[in-house]
Design goal:
Elements lengths: L6 H23 L17 E5 L6 H7 L4 E2 L8 E9 L3 E10 L8 E8 L4 H20 L33 E13 L3 E15 L3 E17 L5 E20 L2 E12 L4 E14 L9 E16 L9 E17 L2 E12 L2 E18 L2 E12 L12 H5 L9 E11 L25
Parallel strand pairs: 1-2, 1-3
Antiparallel strand pairs: 3-4, 4-5, 6-7, 7-8, 8-9, 9-10, 10-11, 11-12, 12-13, 13-14, 14-15, 15-16, 16-17
Length: 442
């Protein structure tokens, strides 16, 4: 028997289906492409492709640098800007590699912008904009738009006073960070709350890199089942760490470190570790933002106190271990790739070991088509901390305990294809937020 249809439902359908038809038609025809910028004599403006995965406010840069044509693919560009980002103890370093294409083939340059962690987002993005425009000067000079270039030099607020570079740092390169955050959610039959706090201090120079810090996390979830019973899940974790790393040469580094950890997930009431490592980079560390090929060896000692008796009938134990890793990474105009292999084992028991392999490749196949793949595999033989009683079904369900496993696999692939207008000049953020439920169903 058919259910009666209410008038309100009919009106909703009459409104929804035409709207969907218009949406579909608009999707098929598409909006008119943004016209390419031209100079007064009809010459197309410089075509620019910005290759920056994160840390660059692309919308802001397009709205500020309007005298170039922003394109979506490097094969349409005359200048490809590859941006690599590296974080230090108190700053983030942006390396801009300007790569000339077509008529600018071979006209390359590299510029570096350093942003302090104390900078606001606006200060950071305006610093990036300034460096970007400085690097574009040599290319815009070769176009008719060079007539619009104006060079100014700012010598501080008082133009009459000579500018002096400040070299006296009252903090002696030390940077301190404190973070506190909390969140909660509540529904009829479940609720959760969490608290995190962290504090750290770090100092980075060409010769030394030092850091120390503490992190605390508390998570609680409460569930009510159909029969009226309840389940409470609590997870706590505390971490302390400190390290000192010394530059030995352009290709060498050595360091020592110590840490302590408490974790309900890992059955650790207390744990302490001290270790030392030495690393060799086939390429100079000054090129690490673009390519690295490192080999390292480490050795350390660990003391563990458990919350519950382990599968080996122990409440505490101490062991020494050693290991090595090989890591390779590079970032190029065609994409980026990383691969690393690590092996470690207990010195007095080679059977207690772990091998981990990870790889990630992002490759642009042809114009508009890119392929991303990541994969990892771990052979695990060192889970000595597992509690003897195992984990209950409820603990497995909420991931309260680390589970026993010999093998861990992970991976994924992504294929992306973009087509249409090569230009990406227009910035329009209308109705871009999902918070109003404009296109969200629930």
């Amino acid at each position: 028997m058919r259910k009666p249809v209410r008038d309100g439902q009919r009106r909703s359908r009459r409104l929804i289906f035409p709207a969907l038809a218009l949406f579909t038609l608009g999707s098929l025809t598409g909006p008119p492409a943004a016209p390419a910028l031209e100079t007064t004599d009809g010459t197309e403006a410089l075509r620019l492709y910005l290759d920056c995965d994160w840390g660059c406010d692309f919308t802001f840069l397009r709205s500020q640098v309007t005298y170039v044509n922003w394109v979506r693919d490097r094969r349409d560009a005359e200048v490809h800007i590859l941006v690599t980002i590296q974080s230090g103890g108190n700053s983030r370093e942006y390396t801009f590699n300007f790569i000339g294409l077509e008529r600018f083939e071979g006209v390359d340059q590299r510029l570096i912008h350093t942003s302090s962690f104390t900078d606001t987002d606006d200060e950071r993005r305006r610093g990036i904009q300034r460096l970007l425009e400085l690097g574009l000067v040599r290319y815009v000079l070769e176009t008719p738009q060079s007539e619009g270039l104006v060079v100014e030099f700012e010598n501080g607020e008082d133009q009459g006073e000579p500018h002096t570079l400040v070299v006296d740092d009252p903090w002696n390169h030390w940077v301190y960070r404190i973070r506190l955050n909390t969140d909660f959610r509540s529904e009829d039959r479940r609720d959760s709350q969490s608290y995190q706090a962290s504090a750290s201090a770090g100092r980075t120079t060409d010769l030394w890199r030092m850091g120390m810090g503490v992190y605390y996390s508390y998570r609680e979830s409460n569930f009510e089942f159909e029969d009226g019973s309840t389940f409470k899940n609590v997870s706590r974790s505390t971490n302390y760490f400190g390290q000192v790393i010394r530059t030995l040469a352009p290709h060498w580094g050595v360091g020592v470190g110590a840490s302590s950890r408490e974790s309900t997930f890992l059955n650790l009431e207390n744990s302490y570790r001290a270790a030392a490592a030495i690393e060799y980079n086939y390429f100079p560390y000054s090129e690490s933002s673009e390519r690295e090929f490192t080999f390292a060896y480490f050795i350390g000692g660990t003391s563990l106190d458990y919350e519950e008796v382990t599968v080996f009938d122990k409440l505490e134990e101490t062991f020494t271990d050693q290991g090595a890793y090989i890591a390779f990474g590079m970032e190029r105009p065609w994409g980026e790739a990383q691969i690393d292999l690590q092996y470690s084992h207990f010195i007095d028991d080679f059977d207690r070991s772990r091998i981990e392999f990870n790889t990630n490749v992002e490759y642009r196949i042809v114009r508009g088509l890119s392929f991303d793949v990541y994969a990892g595999v771990s052979r695990i033989r060192d889970q000595i901390y597992l509690p003897k009683g195992g984990a209950t079904d409820a603990e497995v369900l909420v991931a309260r305990r680390q589970l026993e496993t010999d093998l861990s696999l992970r991976g994924g692939i992504q294929l992306r294809y973009t087509f249409g207008s090569i230009y990406n000049n227009v910035v329009n953020s209308r109705l871009s937020s999902e918070s109003g439920g404009f296109s969200r169903i629930f």
